[in-house]
Structure formats: C-alpha cells, structure tokens
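fyi for ur records
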Amino acid sequence: MRIPNPTSLRARLIELVLLAVLPALGLILYSAGEQRRLARSSAENEALRAVRVLAVSHERLIDSTRHLLITLSRLTEIRKGDSQACNIQFSELLKEYPLYTNLAVANLNGDLICSARALSKPVNVADRAYFQQALQRNDFAIGEYQIGRVSGKANLILAHPILNDTRKINGVVFAGLDLASFNQIVAAAQLPTTYNLTVVDRQGTILARHPNPEQWLGEPVPGSELFKNASGRDKGVAEGIGLDGKQQLYGFTSLEGFSREGNLHISIGIPVEIALSEANWMLKRNLAALILAGFLALAAAWFGSEIFVLRDLNAVVSTTEKIGAGDLSARTGLSPSRTEIGRLAASLDKMAEILEVQRTEAANARGEISALHSLTIAATQSLDLDVVLREGIQKVTEILHFDATRVFLFNADMSELQVRAAFEARPECWHEVVRFRRGESIVGRVADAGEPFIFEDIATDPRYLEMSSRKSSLKARARFLGMFPIKTKLKTWGAMVCVGQLPRKLDPAEINLLGSMTNQIGIAVENATLYQQTATKARELSALYSIAAIGSESLDINTVLHKTMHEVLHIFSFDAARIYVRQGDARELDLVAHAGMPEDISLIKKYAVGEGRLGKACETGEPMIVEDMQTDPVYNQTAHNKVMLRAGFRSSFLIPIKVRKEGLGVMNFLGKEPHKFSEADHQLINSIAYQLGIALGNANLFSQIKQKTVELEKANKGKDEFLGVISHELRTPLNVIKGYTELIQTEVFGDINPEQEKALEKIVNQTKELLSMINHVLQVTSIQAGAAKANRYDVNLCDLLDELKSNYVIPLKKEVAFNWNYSRDLPVIVSDDEKLKAVIQNLINNAVKFTEKGRISIFVRELVEAGAIELKVTDTGVGIPKEQLATIFEMFQQADSSTTRKHGGVGLGLYIVKTFAELLGGQVTVESELGKGSIFTVTLPTRTGVRESELQNHRKLITAFTT
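which gave:
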C-alpha cells in the first residue's frame, strides 16, 4: 500500500477517520482517568483508615505511660526524694511491666536520684529534650529516639514534672518506652506485606517500621518529602517516593492529645503501581479495542478514496500547499463558477486574503498580550519594583512605538512625584525633569486626580499650553503626550508618561492596553510598598523583642547595658559605640563601656549633664541623630571638640537612658559612613530608648530591693538574736525567784502567816506565767530562724495522753472539769513527740485560760481511711468573735487585746500550735461562738510512705492496655 502525500485529499480523508476516532479515545482516556482517580482515592482512604487505627493503639500506649508518670509523680517518697525507697519501688514496677526499659527520677539539675536499673556511675539528663520540655511546660513531655544511658536500649523517653506541696517543680520522673512495643503494635495490625508503615519522632528518626523493622529502627529520614508533609500537618494524605525508592500513596497522622508540636508521626504507604493495577489493565484492554476499530475504519477510507477522489482538484491542492507553506498571497487563478471546484476555488482565494490580514493583526495582538502577561507575572511574583518598572515601560515603549516612557511615583509622604523608571527609544531627543510637586503641572494633576490626559498633538492642543508650567515636552520637540495614573483600590501611587515625536491618535484597544499595564504596575508598587512596610515592622519588632529579652534575662545594669550596646550595633550595622552612665545623684556621666573605638583615640571619661551633645541628650531625654557629621549644621554648632569626626566617624545617634523620666545615662552609636535614617528608624530608636528605660528601671529597682532585703535580713537577724538572748537571760532570775519562793512556802526559813502564803502563791503563779511566756518567745524565735525541725519517732499516743492527763490531775482554782476521751487501741504513729505534746498542752492551757467555769474535753480518734489522727480540744469558755477567727493563729493575736483585758499572755500559743502542726504534716482548725466556747481540731498523719492504693490504680491501667 503506497503511503499518500500528507497534503493529499486521501490523507485528509484518513485524518477525518482519525478525528472520528479521537472522541472515543478521549472517552477511554477520561474513563481511565476516573478509574485511576477512584482507585487512588480508595487507596488513600484505606491508608488513612489504617494509620488512624494504629495511631489509636500508639496513643493508648503513650496515654497509659502518662498516667503511670502522673501517679508516680504524686508518690510521697518521690516528691521528697527518698532515693532508696524509690529505687526499690521502681525495680518492682519494671519487673511487672517489661515494655519499659527503665523508670527513673531526675532532680532539677538533671542528676538521676532514682532508677529502676542500678546505676554504675552518676548519670545526668539535663541535655535531654524531654527533661527540658517537662520543666519548661510544667506538663507531660515526649522525647525523641535515643539509646538509654542506663539501659543501653533504643527507647522513647516520656517524662512528667514532680510537684512539691507548694505546686513547684522539684524534679522530673520519666519512663523509657521500649521501641519493641511500637513494633509489636504494628505486627498485631497484620498489615499486608505490600504496605509500608513508618513511625517517626519529631526529628524524623524511625521508631517503628513495617516490614523489616530491624533494618530501619533509628534511621533518620528528616529530608524525605513524606516527613515534611507529616510534620507540617496533623493528618492527611500525600504521594511521594518511599524509603524503598518506590512511588507511594501515603496516609499520615500525628498522635493527638500530648503535644502541640506533634511529637510522633505515623504513615502507611501503598505502592502506586499496586493501587492502580486494575485501572491500568482496563485502560490497556479498551485501547486495544479502539485500535482494532480504528484500523478497520482507516482501511475503508483508503480504498474508498480511490473511487470518490476527484483528480480535478490539483490546482486547488497546489494553491492550498502554498498557503500551507506560509504564502498567503497565493491564489488559484481559476474563474468563478457554480461548480463545486469553482466555489471551492473562490472560497480558498477569499480565505487566503482574510488570513493574510488576520496574521498581521494577530502578530500585533500577540506582542501586546505577551507584554501584558510578562508585566502581570512580574508584578505578582517579584518584589523588586525597579525590575518590574523597567520591564513594564520597555514593553510599553516597544509595542506601542513610543519614543520615551517614564514612571513617576510619590515619595513616602505623598507630597512629591519623582522619576522611578525611564526608557527612551531615542535618548538624545528626550530630556525631562525628574520631579514634580503634588498637583504641579500635568503629571502632578494626573497623579492627584487619578484620571488620564491624552494630547494627540501638544503643539496645537490649547489644553497643554494652559496646563503645562514648564513646557518641557514641547521643548524636547515632542508632539504626542499621554499621561496615565498608576493606581489600585487603595490609592493612586503615581503616573506613567508616554511621549511620541509625531502626532498620534490612540485607538480604544491601545488605551485599554495602557490602562491594564498601569494597573499591573500599580499592583507591583502596592506589593512592594506593603512588603517594605512589613519588612520594616518585622525588623522593628525583632529589635524591640531582642532589647526586651535582654531586660528579662538579667537584672544587672552593666549586663543589660553591654548586651543592648552590642544588639543595637548589630541592628543598625554601626561600627562603634560608647556608654556613659550617672552614678547615683551625681551631675556627671561616667564612661562605663565602649566597643569598636580606634585604639589611638583618647575617649573622654566624664561629661557633665548638659555639656556637649552627650550631656544635652541626657538632660533633655530626647534622641539625637546625625546622618553626616561633615554636613550637619546642628552637629557643627553643638559639638565642641568634634573628636568622633576626627576619628573617622561620619554618622551618629544618641539614645538617652531614662528611668521614670530621669536621665540615667546616654548610649552613643557611630558609623564610619553617612547613614540615612528613615522615619521607621526614628521610631525604632525611640522605641529602643523606651524599652531600654524599662529594662534599666527594672534592674535599678531590683538593685534597690536587693539592698533593702539585705538590710531587712540583718535587722530581722538582730531581732531574733536579741529575743533569744534576752529570753535566756530572763529565765535565770525567774528560776531563782521561783526556787526561793518555793523554799519560803515550805517554811525552810521559818513560819509564814496566811497572808504571806497568799502573796507567795501569787508570786509562784505569776512566775510560772512569765516562764511560759519566755518559753513561747524562745520557740517562736527558733521557728522564725528556721531552726524548728520535725523529728520522726514512733510515738505511743496512749502513753503520751496518759502523761498529759496526769499533769492536769491537780485541782485548779476554777470550777472546771476535764473529760479525756480516747481509746486504748490508738495506733503508734510516726511523729515528733515533743512538738506534738507542745501542741496539745498549748490548746489545753488556752482552754483553761478562757474557761472560768464549765468543762474542757479532749477527744482523740483514728481516721482509718484517711490514715490520720484527729485530736479535738473543746471548752465552754468565753469563745472567740467571728471576725477574729481568721487571724487567731497569727503571732501576738488575742481575742481581747485591750490593756484592760482579763486574761494575760502575749498571743504566741496558737501561733506555735499552727506552726508545729504543719511541721508534723497536719493542720489545725477552729470553730467558735462568742459566749459558747471553742473547738480546736488538729489532724495529723499516722505514717509516711507510698500509698498502695496509688500503685493499684496504675497497675489496672497497664493491665487493661497489655491485654
């Protein structure tokens, strides 16, 4: 079979057959695309479903460990740092739960003080991420893949802070999760062997893998496309190259509920070739059927053309070939006729004529569209305004055949238009002014009004002669002048000026094109302006944040000044700096620091406040800026010796250091080149001065507070020493008075009469009262000095209460009855017997003092469920006013503090009761009603140590997970 000429009619018929086949081909390809899309979607959904199921399993494992750590952090022996008991308890837990490589506790320095595994040497974990996160967040933290320093195994560390009774962190408890448990969860999911599962930490290190986990464990994959997708979102699907080098469809998610950063990421990949295998097979089958049908149709067209092709069309074909070769001037030369060939020839000639005209128009349109497209791309994708403007006006000048084009843009304060870009096809013929004021001349009016002005011939147009103030275009022998505003929805940014040497009339398409191009230029100007504003604001915020951070890092004035000096040098790229600070109320500024100064320069050590530029900046509190010392008239008038200018510096600015509107000093920054300070720079310098004032004010205030604290500590220490010495010294004469009084009462020195006996009894009672007061003062002095400590002994409550009971057997001079109510089965508790006795005695003595008549009851019982002892002392005395209940346990507080009160004492007994009760791990409360008596209740723990119930709750959680 002879191959036909591609331009022959037979070839055309074959092409028609092929065209007829194209819709079927398109339908097959569309169906195949839909099937592949559905297959891909199904695979992605399957991967996402599987990864969610596995994420739940991993979250349960981590959540169980979190509950374990919370429980352990609340154990008393851990909170108090009992290493021996903690080691034993953790060792037992590690045997029960082999899924952990180790359980341990670290103090605030990172040193291990407790470990389930024996430590062969000291271990510090302060550099571990989990330790730092637990301290910083005061919450549960998840670490990264690492080899345990104690266990030597690959694990994932989970940590939780340990809080003391005051809710402050005093350590971190953590557990090493054996990564084999992750792979066990993956194995239990029974994923198909074609699936690829990966669990990574936030650094991209593999924690679990299917298949071949042993090959990938601990391998880093932070650069993979999948890890970038997974670490950037909580969950989703993606496609990329897997670790095995094959294209994969992935479902990925981050473990939820434990960290905002997404510590762990899980992904499941399904090979694309497997996911799309069925859709690919169906595409091959349909293409084979289409090829067979197309082959039969082509055979029919080939043999049919021999019968129906007209050989008389050679002339038409020849002309068609010429036209196809690009010769649109070719014609058939046939006379018009009503035959098919004649009509075809006439149509072909007319078509060739039309095509010739349209080709010329299309070439022009393509150039315009290409220029507008290039300008649009540049305006939306580039922030380099000069590049956009240069490219834009060059395209305008070349396409519309102008002789010159210029762009004028407003300055920062929108008061003046300046040339920002220019392009001249004939530079020697065009010389234009480079700036206009707003509203000045035609350019200023166009930019101000936002409407275009077009002069077809400025030589004959009276509007130009009236509106132009300088007639510069006419002087340059220009005839055509078009001015178009550059604007956006926000505002008008400037104007574009187009000039031609000959008169010209723009058609509507050209005007529309110029309008579109100026709009795109406006967008570029707006984007560049917004970017510049954003960059300036970001630079300002970054600088202020750095200065504020310096103030928050240190409260030492010298440290703040030095760090701020180097930070500002970096921000403004200056070369040198010096700092002068006032010392106290002095009227002089002393040089305290400098950087970058030439070695041969002799720096002035002192400046008087108000002297020179430095002294005036400190006195006025206003920054002083010099952009160029050589040309600045103010600098040359106010600078006396010009030392810095002679040292080679050109630019300078002074930042006054103000604290509460008082000048503390001045920071001077110098540059070796002239420096143009923008409005943003001025604002930034003022903001830095303000932030520096706050930082130094805080540092100065801290220094004053520190000094006052030292003075108060000295005064308080002197007070405590005085009270201790005077109390000891008072006891000696009182004991002598008491001893001699008792000798006189026993008539060692002779007989005494009844009146003397009464007087001696009063002396004895008052002596006892005074000794009690002195003992109270000594106890309070010990408490205030921090010397009061609680010892731990086994205390038999029954024996202690029996001893106290015997002390109150002697009848009192009051109508008061004692009621002791306690069981002989009271337990032996762990406490300080001396302080416990002092608590009970003070409460009983307090009840005796304020009960003239009635009953005093002492109740003691064990609270088994709470693991505590409850002791109540009740009386039927005068009671306590309701408004004084809140302060009754404070020092020197009494229900009646007047000078005419009936009852004595200094108000220290209940303060001692409260302090000793809290030292013993308990608390004291009071209930009272005026005239009806009082009830004081003391609750004390019976023992210390780990509560078994706390560990039982954790065991239940672990058992539920592992089963």
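The mean pLDDT is 76. thats all i got for now
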